[in-house]
Amino acid sequence: MPEPRADYECWLPDEAATLALGAALAEALPREVKPAALIELEGDLGAGKTTLVRGLLRKLGSEEAVKSPTYTLVEPHVISGLNLYHFDFYRFSQPEEFLDAGLDEYFAQAGWCLVEWPARARPYLPACDWRIELAIAGSGRRAHLEATSERGRAWLTRLSIAATSSPPA
User: Does residue 2 sit within a domain?
Assistant: First the structure.
């Protein structure tokens, strides 16, 4: 039996495509997972990390405003019994701030943890399941999704994305 796919790359020409990728992620991830699924979101400021989370939340049925938790560190969302935690560690100057804020407790619970700027909390984050890198590329974005755990690879096989694989010539 072939090894499950470990990565996926696509071109996102506009905000609608980034929202659609977030919606596709919502479809691929299981509703019941413990410890929490850890999805690391990498990319420069303005790369579309929060837009991706907005697309995921909209697909799950949330009508809430979705903002980056840069100042609050975490924005919890409970949708149909699913706990989703959106973190942003951009403001951390030391990784120990993760522990000082007591954020490690979220990752032991059932649900999904989506983390912007995860490198600023290492080495205290648990191993991630998916790492998603968004990069500004011309007028759009390039998204690279890497499954970094066995369960992450299994979830990736359920991912269905209708985005083009490369920017227009």
Answer: no
